[in-house]
Structure formats: C-alpha cells, structure tokens
Design a protein that fits this description.
Blueprint: E1 8-11, H1 13-17, H2 26-38, E2 43-48, H3 61-67, E3 75-79, H4 83-91, E4 96-102, H5 105-112, H6 116-122, H7 124-132, E5 136-142, H8 155-168, E6 172-177, H9 184-195, E7 203-207, H10 214-223, E8 228-231, H11 251-260, H12 269-283, H13 290-300
Parallel strand pairs: 1-2, 1-8, 2-3, 3-4, 4-5, 5-6, 6-7, 7-8
Helix pairs in contact: 2-3, 2-12, 8-9, 9-10, 12-13
Domain Pyruvate carboxyltransferase: 7-273
GO molecular function, one term: metal ion binding
EC number: 4.1.3.4
Length: 301
C-alpha cells in the first residue's frame, strides 16, 4: 500500500479541544502551545476570535497568541467566523484564518443560525481582508459523515460545500466528522468522490473518536492519499452531541499510527505526551489518548 511519504499534522487541541473543556488559565494555554512547538508541531490552532458570550473558553485568545514563544517556521491559526474576528486576529499577527460551515442545513441553522449559502456569503468580507493582508484561509466543513439532526449526509452535499469554499479562496478544506459516526467504508466513499473533483493536497481530515473509529478512518484516508490530519493532544475536547463521549482523535495516537506505517511526521512523541499531561493536570482529568496513557504508565513504573 502506497501511503503519503509525509503527513502534515494540524494540532487543534488548543482551540477546538479546549473550547469544549473546562476553562483553564491563559498561562496554561500558553504553556500548552509552547510545549506543542517544542515537540515539533508546526501547524497549531491557537485560538478563536469569537464572542466570549458564546465561547468563554476562548475569550483570552489575543493574550494567548501574544504570549507564546514559537519558532518562525511554526504557523499559528485562529478561528475567524466573521469580519470582526478576522480584524482581531490580525492584531495578533495571525497568518492563517479558519472559517467554518457544514454539509447539513439543519446543523448550520442550529449552530450559526443561517443556511449553508448564507454562511458562505458571510465569509466573503473575511476573505477580502485576508487577501489584502496576505493571510491564508482554511475552510472547515462539519458533519461530512453524519449529522445529529439529519442522520446520514450524502457525499454530493459535502462536495458542493467544498467546491464553494475553494471557489471563495480557501487553500485547504478540513473534512469534519463532527459526531464521530463515520466508518472506513463511508470515508472511502466520500473521499473517492471528492478526489474526482478536488486535488488530494487541498483536503484534510478531522475525525472525532466518539465511536472509536477515528484511527481506522484516518488509515482509510491515508490509503487514498490524504496527507493532512487534524488532531488534538491528549484527545482534548468532547462531543457535545454525545454526552460523555470522546471528541477529537488524540495526536499521540495518530503519531504512533503514522510511525507504525513508516511515515515520520518529525514529532517527538514523548515531548508531545508530556505537553498533554501538563494540560490534563490543569483540567484535572486524564488524557483520552491510549498512547499517552501507555507512556505515562511506562514512565511511572
């Protein structure tokens, strides 16, 4: 089997992970991002410029981003769902914006109170600002393999949204299995269709591990040539639509999988695990990552 020779990891724990956890201090977030950089991660979602009324965990994103010490080759991104958020992100010298919509009309209405078409239209001024300041924009599509309200989502619906975001100017589309219901065969069906219309290097996968299928789904995506994977250190985050379920696939588990396939993501697994242990102590919870727990047991034995 020919896997990608290199794989890009987009670390989402500091944003997508922590926004679904109990609040931690600004200093804890800064320490997490610094620790991730020391482990070798080069692409890190560092915060979200959204209303603190709706996402209080991200209210200090500007202070976090201004407080981190990262090397020049590390790319920090931030969620910027509207022009106000994008303008705030620019003050932190962010060079990559993230915008999001969904492949489900019902989810989009309930999540951001508009239709899919309206959500994409709202991003036009964000894209204009990004182009003026030489900022890249990444698009996220939620519910690509299932929706908590509509159930199964047709791959053609995902393709339509991906095409719209690419036409808008996004350089990459992250395919989100928001409720973690995807299975390898569904992943193959979806990505096979998308690859008939979209180059593999413009697609990323963002799997949640709600039903324990995330690593199997990632393996299926790798077999099809997808070489960008979103993940969260220690498996940070949860699934708001499945009480008590795990959320993002753990970066440690993804790295271990890649190493086992002969793919070197150039990330120090032990340092990565330690960054996860530190933030988990701040959250007063154990890591969700199986690899992290195994390393923790090994270190304490």
């Amino acid at each position: 089997m020919a896997y990608p020779s290199t794989v890009k990891i987009v670390e989402v724990g500091a944003r997508d992970g922590l926004q679904n956890e109990a609040s931690v201090s600004t200093e804890d977030k800064i320490a997490l991002i610094n620790g991730l950089c020391e482990a070798g991660l080069k692409h890190i979602e560092a915060g979200a410029f959204v209303s603190p009324k709706w996402v209080p965990q991200m209210a200090d994103s500007l202070a976090v981003i201004n407080g981190v010490s990262v090397a020049q080759d590390v790319s920090l991104s931030a969620l910027t769902p509207n022009l106000k958020g994008a303008e705030a992100a620019l003050t932190a010298n962010i060079k990559e914006f993230a915008i999001f919509t969904a492949a489900s009309e019902t989810f989009t209405q309930k999540n951001i109170n508009c239709s899919i078409e309206q959500s994409i239209d709202r991003f036009k001024n964000v894209m204009e600002l990004a182009q003026q300041h030489d900022v890249k924009v990444r698009g996220y599509v939620s519910c690509v393999l299932g929706c908590p309200y509509e159930g199964d989502i047709e791959p053609e619906a995902v393709l339509r949204v991906c095409k719209q975001l690419l036409a808008l100017g996004c350089y990459e589309i992250s395919l989100g299995d928001t409720v973690g219901v995807g299975t390898p065969n569904k992943v193959k069906s979806l990505i096979s269709l998308l690859l008939q219309h979209i180059p593999a290097d413009k697609l990323a996968v963002h799997f949640h591990d709600t039903y324990g299928q995330a690593l199997a789904n990632i393996h299926s995506a790798l077999e099809l040539g997808i070489a960008t994977i979103d993940s969260a250190v220690a498996g940070l985050g949860g699934c708001p639509y499945a009480q008590g379920a795990s959320g993002n696939v753990a970066t440690e588990d993804v790295i271990y999988l890649l190493q086992g396939l002969g793919i070197d993501p150039q990330i120090d697994l032990e340092r990565l695990a330690k960054a996860g242990w530190t933030i988990c102590r701040a959250l007063n919870k154990p890591p969700v990552s199986k690899v992290s727990l195994a390393l923790q047991a090994k270190c304490s034995s």
